[in-house]
Amino acid sequence: MAPLLLLLPLLLLISSIAPSAMAAPAHTSNWAVLVCTSRYWFNYRHMANTLSIYHTVKRLGIPDDHILLMLADDMACNARNSRPAQVFNNEDHKLNLYGENVEVDYRGYEVTVDNFLRVLTGRHDPAVPRSKRLLSDESSNVLLYMTGHGGDQFIKFQDAEEIQSHDLADAIQQMHQKGRYREILFMVDTCQASTLYSQVYSPGVLAASSSKKGENSYSHHLDMDVGVSVIDRFTYYTLQFLEGVRTDSAATLESLFRVYDPRLLMSNASFRDDLFRRKLDEVRVTEFFGSVMDVKHTPSGYSGFTGDPTRRSDRRRSEGEAKPRREEREATAAAAAAASELEVGAGDEGDWVLGVSCLLIGVTTVLWHKALRTD
Ligand SMILES: *[C@@H]1O[C@H](CO)[C@@H](O)[C@H](O)[C@H]1NC(C)=O
């Protein structure tokens, strides 16, 4: 017991070095950053685009605390909205996108280039709450969706400022350096959209957009009741595809990217996969629009909290039950080992060993800190 505890500082040191040496982390979480950059009533469709994607990723399993929703204007409560507190992406008015369950993280004048870059890079004022931060790590797949008015190498934020493709590329590089993503799917619905990701140079980024350089992106249809266009074409056909996707669907990004017909879009959808490590027909849509769940199946109930496991197995034997299954026996043995360790810790001898070990760890830590300081 004692020599083991003496090794603890060394183990701590090793474990703090190990992660940086590891390659290709597993995919363990999903995040989404959904940004509508437009203000004003006539840009209703951009908010509807964003809310539609928001509902889709929620339906496919990304929890709200892993979604950063940025909406520059509040169409639902606009005085011109003939259907107050509601937003629709279709003239059939079947789905109110602004129902009870919409958590906007950045709204109104909070949707700025500055805040957007802070969300991506994680450089916040300490007072910013966790709900407004992208807390992804090197095992996270991040869906980044943007819509608004753009042009060659930029997208406008609220008619007041714009973000340039170089700034975006550098922000993504910072994310890469800080281990804030494993893979990114960057989708843009705006005019000349493909120019916005043309400068990206970080590994693991896949990008898709509604139009090429020199092309406009168009809205899908007008709602005579609401009085404005309610959705853009690229997002409309994306949603049409995603409506057929369930959490267990095997649909791939390749099949999604194939649905964009230039005749329907009135622009050429564009893609970029030179930085992406995998083939698109091997990547499920749900790897970005859904959520991985790290679920562990146990063959039997967890017995760690049910007291003395040895006594239980005694009881089982006396009741003439069949032999416990192998997994159960292993679990029992592990629990028994843990229990006996606790007993050592609780005894007089255990206290003594623990005391000396703590002292040694303390001394080692102090010396270690001293050594670091003189460097
Ligand atoms: C799509 O690209 C082709 C080839 O560059 C071009 O001829 C065509 O006009 C574009 N389509 C639209 C709808 O802009």
UniProtKB/TrEMBL annotation:
<feature type="compositionally biased region" description="Basic and acidic residues">
    <location>
        <begin position="309"/>
        <end position="331"/>
    </location>
</feature>
<feature type="active site" description="Nucleophile">
    <location>
        <position position="191"/>
    </location>
</feature>
<dbReference type="InterPro" id="IPR028361">
    <property type="entry name" value="GPI_transamidase"/>
</dbReference>
<dbReference type="GO" id="GO:0016255">
    <property type="term" value="P:attachment of GPI anchor to protein"/>
</dbReference>
<dbReference type="InterPro" id="IPR001096">
    <property type="entry name" value="Peptidase_C13"/>
</dbReference>
<dbReference type="GO" id="GO:0042765">
    <property type="term" value="C:GPI-anchor transamidase complex"/>
</dbReference>
<feature type="region of interest" description="Disordered">
    <location>
        <begin position="300"/>
        <end position="331"/>
    </location>
</feature>
<dbReference type="GO" id="GO:0006506">
    <property type="term" value="P:GPI anchor biosynthetic process"/>
</dbReference>
<keyword id="KW-0732">Signal</keyword>
<dbReference type="GO" id="GO:0006508">
    <property type="term" value="P:proteolysis"/>
</dbReference>
<comment type="pathway">
    <text>Glycolipid biosynthesis; glycosylphosphatidylinositol-anchor biosynthesis.</text>
</comment>
<dbReference type="GO" id="GO:0003923">
    <property type="term" value="F:GPI-anchor transamidase activity"/>
</dbReference>
<keyword id="KW-0337">GPI-anchor biosynthesis</keyword>
<dbReference type="Pfam" id="PF01650">
    <property type="entry name" value="Peptidase_C13"/>
</dbReference>
<protein>
    <recommendedName>
        <fullName>GPI-anchor transamidase</fullName>
    </recommendedName>
</protein>
<feature type="active site">
    <location>
        <position position="149"/>
    </location>
</feature>
<feature type="signal peptide">
    <location>
        <begin position="1"/>
        <end position="23"/>
    </location>
</feature>
<comment type="similarity">
    <text>Belongs to the peptidase C13 family.</text>
</comment>
